[in-house]
Amino acid sequence: MVGSVTEPVAESRRMVFLYVAAAAVFATIAARGLTVPLYAHDIGANRFAVGALFSVATLAAAVLSLPSGVLVDRFGARTLLAVSLVITAVSQLAIAFTTNVPLMFVWQVIGGLAAGIQQSAVFSAVTESVSRS
Questions:
Q1: Contact between 59 and 112 (Cβ < 8 Å)
Q2: pTM metric for this prediction
Q3: In sequence order, what DSSP letters do the residues of 80-116 get, joined into one string?
Q4: What is the number of structural domains in the chain?
Q5: CB of 105 within 8 A of CB of 52?
Q6: Local structure of residue 44 (DSSP, 8 states)
Q7: pLDDT digits (tens, 9 = 90+) for 9-53
């Protein structure tokens, strides 16, 4: 029993990473839903532009979600998850410092592409974490 302690510790670290990564993914989605419309309105976006900001992010995520499965197979789920979280953080910080609506569209597309990668990477990482018994 004492010799098998290292394997569960490694597995629990892996699960903690997955939980933290999943929480970060959902937190960015929630934060984007709350802050982007308010900020876009403050810098002059009309209602159509606010809706379009979310549409371009969703479309970018949809476009990359299927091809990102190939990237997950090539580079690994954890690597792509980490990279996509960094890209998401950069895009959200960039939106915070953006002073015009067209540039917000650019950062929303970049954030949407990261979200497309995250979707495949999270599902793949969760699937890999389930023991095959």
A1: yes
A2: 0.76
A3: HHHHHHHHHHHHHHHHHH--SHHHHHHHHHHHHHHHH
A4: 1
A5: yes
A6: T
A7: 566 777 787 778 778 777 777 777 788 888 888 999 999 999 898
